[in-house]
Amino acid sequence: MRPILLKGHERSITVVKFNFDGDLLFTASKDHIPSVWRNENGERIGTFNGHKGTIWDLDVCRFSKRVVTASADASAKLWDCETGECIKTFVHHGPVRGAAWADGSNMFATISDPFVEHNAQISVYDVPENDDPSSYSDSPRLEIDLPKTSDGNVSMLPTLFGSTSMKLSLLPLIMVQSVYMIRRQGRTDFTAKLYDVVDLKHLKTYKTDRPVNDAVISETKDHILLGGGQEAMSVTTTSGKVGKFETRFFHLVYEEEFGSVKGHFGPINALAINPNGRSYASGAEDGYIRLHYFDKSYLDMKDPVPEVLEEGEEDDDEMEEDRESDSDSD
Amino acid sequence: MADLADEAASLDGYFSDAPLEPEPKYPPLNESFDRCVIITNLPKVPEAKYEKLGKVVLKLVSRIGPLANYEGSDFTGFFMPFDKEAGATVGCAFIEYETAGDAKKAIEVLEEYKFDKNHALHVLPHERASHLADVEEEEFKQPEPEPFKEQPNTMSWLEDSCQRDQFAIRHGKETAVFWNDGREEPVLDYDGAREKEAGVAWCEYYVQWSPKGSYFATLVPNRGVILWGGDNFQKLQRFAAPGVDFVVFSPQENYMMTNNNNRNDPHAIKVFSIQTGKCLRAFPLYPSNFLDEKLSEQEKSNIPPPPFQWSHDDKYLARMGKDLISVFDVPTMKLLDKRSLACDGICEFQFSPKANIIAYWAPEHKNQPANVNVIELPSRKSLRQKNLFNVTKCSLVWQENGEYLGVKVTRHTKSKKTLYNNLELFRVNEPGIPVEMLDVKDAVMAFSWEPQGSRFAIIHAENPTSTKVNVTFYDMFRMSEPEKKKGKKKSTGKELIAEVNKVETLEGKQCNCIFWSPAGRTIILAALGDSASGTLEFYDCDNKSLVIKEHYRANQVLWDPSGRTLATTVSQPIGGGHFKFAMDNGYIVWSFQGKQISQQSFETFYQFQWRPREKLFNKKETAEVSKNLKKYEKQFNAFDEAKKRKLRLEETRGKRKNRSAFRATLARLKEIRSNMKQERMALLNGYDSEDEGNFTTKEVTIETILSSKEELVY
């Protein structure tokens, strides 16, 4: 099925995110105005106006009531998701790179870049849902200074957890999705890597031939989606074919690429899979968001290795014909 | 006494004890004998014929240069000893030349000179002869032959049960040889594991297969060339060739030539015998007098060295020189008949791939028109000469069987402003070698014969820089009955007429290279290079079917020797890491129908080479096989299915193992997470987000919230 092309942002997309229920798609770009779209038909429901800089990240709470955004204007804003009004602005020392809700939606964490004499830092704010917003404190409940060398990106976290003895209960607070997390080294070595978040042990590597900007794990299937493409700065010197601005589908376990989706004409910066597993969205440097609905053939796709032992698998001598079909998507 | 004293006084100073001055000046004694040569193996003649023989020999040796002559001595520089006891000459003569250079020349020229039917002269420098005289004579002992060592069977790979082809790749620091069956992913045969274990590199530069696929040469520029072969690629031979840049094998695999591309090295090119590993002869990069002395160094460096060419049967090795072709007899490595093949103004020559025939062309030269010459060796008989006018450039293309020779002639108009092409087509195997001329109005960019066939294809366009070009196919034969045109032209039916005719033209193509399948029939029209799109068009010339594929930035198209599969590569030169080469390195293997079989990418990819194999079936046997194709097909299909299944099962097993390991990890992580459930629930005010029943009831509430938001938008 043809994807829905979401045109609304004026600059390159930085983040796309579904809410927990999968009916809303939140997007942000460098044009300062995050938007929210209906997953069902791609209709834009509203925008969150107020930031004065690039939006680097956003997160929506468990019940889609409040949204937190991280912006390069050195602030994080808390919004009412229904009305689109800004509840409160949290001023930081430097550009804010990441924002994430804690379980329970009563706390959120941000991570900011170093700025002049200030280090990069992770800040955790208390915003109890049932309290009056005016009673929220401007200062974070917890601040963690990050060493100057770090670039302040959320993807730095594995090393951070390794070095500081943080309480394990903080882990689900910041972590994005599931029990695993992905570390992206893609820009330099064209791979995405899978780690487990408890031991930070490296599990799998997914290799491509272009920089990888984002990766997302499907919650319903053992699949991982990688997005990227040739760096934006060298795009103008080559044709679109070279860029390979594709979403690549890998099998999470076997590390095999089994499909790809073309369409963007700039490197893909952000990917998100709907928690219900029926659609996914990609946002790219070209300023477009493509909302794809999976075909039936993808949804019916089975693991190439059947659960039941195949006849002859343990015993080579039998040569009977018994084939199972490996259906590929796209 | 007084007068005595007077006399003494007058003579004072006349006598002195001092030695006489000046001493007589003798010429320095020349102790060197380098002007002397000794001729042996002369006929032994009785006294009566002594003088006659002397005269003949003297005349012969004087042709080289003047003999020594000493004033006041009757020695003429020539002496032929006579054995009085035997009553006959000894069979040798002493010659002294005026200069050492002449003596040297005499050795070169007169050695093995056929003096008469039974006597070939043997010429020695004096030094060597006197050394031989001192050699102590010993009883000759037959040296023990070295114990016989079984050489690895270099043909073993041809016994592969699946008749697979091999190819070698060079990427990064790796060199590996793969099997390719034309259906599945290539399978690794050998990647230098033995050498890696021993801590040595088995290749540091390019690799080269020998023409029949028996040997695999790897280049190690510091030392030379190593030859591998047999099962597991055992080391067969090493050849010392410092700085080696590339190697050329002789067609029958008896010899190998290394080249280090060093202009200043007098031994830049070395010819080795593969069996013995001995260097037979070394040559400088350029033949003497090839580079005009008047040219500057810059201009000289722009002239490529003329390459050596082997004859098809390993008998001759030839290289172009200035106005000549030097043909060397192998393995003696002496000039054939001691003289070069004179070819005035020669620009390029090509050996026929199947016969000892040389074709060359020379541009207009000293009032002579440009011409193409076909010469037979070793008789040096000119089989055919064709004069051409207004020629700018020619290129010679032999058909693989040596049946036809195509000459692409680029000609200019009188004003020399516009260029146009025509093709001269020689039917070499027909009596008198008839030549047909084919006028092509357009510029011809490429010309290629169908291997084993009589067809050829050209790329042409009105303007050589245009992006859209036409591809035209011609046949050297025409069917007399036009409705039978579709039949195979190769069969020698009665209705075949030896006449060039156009088969068809494909218009508006985007290609710059054409590659016939080694089996004929299929041709690839490819747009290669940096500026091109990498389009690959698979065209079946008999069925007229076309498949279009693409390999972006491809710079090579390589057919496997059977014509079943082909590879397209994006490679970069070794050591020439320029960023424009750095992207998309790798190769794709396609079936001849254009189906992609395998794709591999590498950070740096240098070389891809199919292992050549000899064609062992003749046309008749091939026809026999294609007649019984149905029978073979069944057999092969069954075999393929079985193999496929086995492979799949193996893969499944590996994946299953992988999956269970992953699932175990996952289970552990999930357990940790579920242990924290209470903590999480506390954070959500006791709400269990993982409880499905809980989830659905909440969903309803969320839906109402959404609809209320819709009202807000209105």
Automatic annotation (TrEMBL), chain A:
It is found in: Cytoplasm. WD repeats lie at residues 6-47, 48-89, 261-291. One of its GO terms (molecular function) is translation initiation factor activity. Keywords: Cytoplasm, Initiation factor, Protein biosynthesis, Repeat, WD repeat. Coiled coil: none annotated. One of its GO terms (cellular component) is eukaryotic translation initiation factor 3 complex, eIF3m. Residues 304-330 are annotated as: Disordered. PROSITE patterns: WD_REPEATS_1 (PS00678), WD_REPEATS_2 (PS50082), WD_REPEATS_REGION (PS50294). Its main location: cytoplasm. Residues 308-330 have a biased composition (Acidic residues). PANTHER family: EUKARYOTIC TRANSLATION INITIATION FACTOR 3 SUBUNIT I. Component of the eukaryotic translation initiation factor 3 (eIF-3) complex, which is involved in protein synthesis of a specialized repertoire of mRNAs and, together with other initiation factors, stimulates binding of mRNA and methionyl-tRNAi to the 40S ribosome. The eIF-3 complex specifically targets and initiates translation of a subset of mRNAs involved in cell proliferation. Belongs to the eIF-3 subunit I family. Belongs to the WD repeat STRAP family. This is Eukaryotic translation initiation factor 3 subunit I. It comes from Skeletonema marinoi. The lineage of its organism: Eukaryota, Sar, Stramenopiles, Ochrophyta, Bacillariophyta.
Automatic annotation (TrEMBL), chain B:
Keywords: Cytoplasm, Initiation factor, Protein biosynthesis, RNA-binding. InterPro entries: EIF3B (IPR011400), eIF3B_RRM (IPR034363), Nucleotide-bd_a/b_plait_sf (IPR012677), RBD_domain_sf (IPR035979), RRM_dom (IPR000504), TIF_beta_prop-like (IPR013979), WD40/YVTN_repeat-like_dom_sf (IPR015943). GO terms for cellular component: eukaryotic 43S preinitiation complex; eukaryotic 48S preinitiation complex; eukaryotic translation initiation factor 3 complex. Pfam families: eIF2A. Residues 35-128 form the RRM domain. One of its GO terms (biological process) is formation of cytoplasmic translation initiation complex. Coiled coil: none annotated. SUPFAM superfamilies: DPP6 N-terminal domain-like, RNA-binding domain, RBD. It is found in: Cytoplasm. GO terms for molecular function: RNA binding; translation initiation factor activity; translation initiation factor binding. Component of the eukaryotic translation initiation factor 3 (eIF-3) complex, which is involved in protein synthesis and, together with other initiation factors, stimulates binding of mRNA and methionyl-tRNAi to the 40S ribosome. HAMAP family: eIF3b. Component of the eukaryotic translation initiation factor 3 (eIF-3) complex. Belongs to the eIF-3 subunit B family. This is Eukaryotic translation initiation factor 3 subunit B.
